[in-house]
Design a protein that fits this description.
The chain is mostly beta strands. The chain folds into 2 domains: 201 residues, Clam (outer membrane lipoprotein receptor (LolB), chain A), CATH 2.50.20.10; 107 residues, 2-Layer Sandwich (Phosphorylase Kinase, domain 1), CATH 3.30.200.100. The chain is built from 3 helices and 21 strands. The strands form 3 sheets. Strands 7-8-9-10-11-1-2-3-4-5-6-12 form a 12-stranded mixed sheet, with helices on one face. Strands 13-15-16-17-20-19-18 form a 7-stranded antiparallel sheet, with helices on one face. A two-stranded antiparallel sheet has the order 14-21. It is globular. The relative contact order is 0.13.
Length: 327
């Protein structure tokens, strides 16, 4: 009986151990992306489109600075510091500076594509670890985050075995197990220090137009406690996590912006007023892993958008109602 009990214990404990290990590695990953020095070639792939970037991430005296250079097109550059994000666009000769009001925002373009573990995920996803393999010439641990239904994507993340640095990520749809989006390093270095000049702009911006976030005081957002719109038929696990009113120039009424999340996937819902007939386009739009669904409700254009399957944004958008209609 003891042998049988021990075997049963191992049988059920195995998946739990794997999940715990995956949790630990996801926490290590979140720290590694921001705290390590690294530089390399990063490829972003979506169906029918591939983009290549050079990434330089420097941490000195606890301060992180990052520079991302597009290797295709006009060679745009993005430089991120603790206080601002600077985008340089050679084709339009513009420099856009966005002040970081929330220092915890995922401004790092690599980290923005990475999941963060929270206990809220456990009800909707199964975490696990797969056999190791090599990515960009380094041994990597494969973490899988599998959804328990069809309203969210599966995440696969290959983490460097020595540092937990993410070397490759995939979002998996339900179409023959094929990625709907993929991000991976083809080459990567993890030096003790990245030279300061590598995170400075290489483009000469003389004569460029400077656009600074906040130049138009009437274009801003503010959080609100209660809002007149709500989704009446959310997929299991999704809850409203944010509500803001966005005041735009030349708009009499603010745009409503709601965010629904299951702890990993998130969907933004925008409710626009005063939308012209030519802009009242209803239906589904897809770009890589992102899907958007728009529908007219009470004379307003409601759009749900997120990196989730099409049926998720469709269900949320078509269930949006005014609170007065719900009551």
């Amino acid at each position: 009986m003891r042998v049988l009990y021990f075997c049963l214990l191992l049988q059920f404990a195995g998946p739990l151990w794997a999940a715990d290990a995956a949790n630990v590695w996801l926490d290590k990953m979140a720290s590694a992306v921001e705290s390590l020095n690294y530089e390399g070639t990063l490829v972003h792939m979506r169906p029918g489109k591939a983009e290549t970037f050079m990434v330089f991430h420097r941490v000195a005296d606890g301060v992180a600075t990052e520079r991302v250079v597009a290797m295709d097109g006009d060679g745009a550059e993005i430089i991120r510091t603790s206080d601002e994000v600077i985008c340089i666009f050679p084709a339009s000769k513009k420099v856009v500076i966005d002040k970081r009001s929330n220092k915890k925002d995922k401004q790092n373009p690599l980290r923005a594509n990475l999941p963060e573990y929270s206990a809220a995920m456990d009800a909707q996803y199964q975490l696990g670890m797969q056999p190791n393999m090599r990515v960009a010439g380094r041994s990597a641990r494969l973490i899988s985050i599998k959804p328990k239904d069809d309203y969210r994507y599966e995440h696969r993340i290959w983490l460097d075995e020595q540092t937990a640095m993410p070397l490759k990520t995939q979002l998996i749809g339900d179409d023959d197990d094929m990625p709907v989006e993929e991000l991976f390093f083809t080459t990567i270095l993890l030096p003790e220090l990245v030279a300061a000049e590598k995170v400075r702009a290489a483009l000469n911006t003389e004569g460029y137009t400077l656009i600074s976030n906040g130049a138009h005081p009437h274009q801003h957002s503010e959080p609100v406690g209660q809002i007149a719109w709500a989704a009446t038929n959310l997929p299991s696990g999704f809850m409203q996590t944010a509500a803001t009113l966005e005041y735009m120039e030349k708009s009499e009424e603010p745009r409503v912006h709601l965010v629904y999340s299951d702890g990993l996937a998130s969907v933004s819902v925008f409710v626009d007023v005063g939308v012209g007939a030519s802009e009242q386009v209803e239906g589904l739009t897809t770009m890589g892993a992102a899907n958007a669904y728009s529908v007219m409700v009470e004379g307003r254009l409601v759009t749900a958008v997120g990196e989730v399957p099409a049926q998720t944004v469709h269900q949320i958008a078509t269930s949006m109602q005014l609170q007065s209609d719900i009551d």
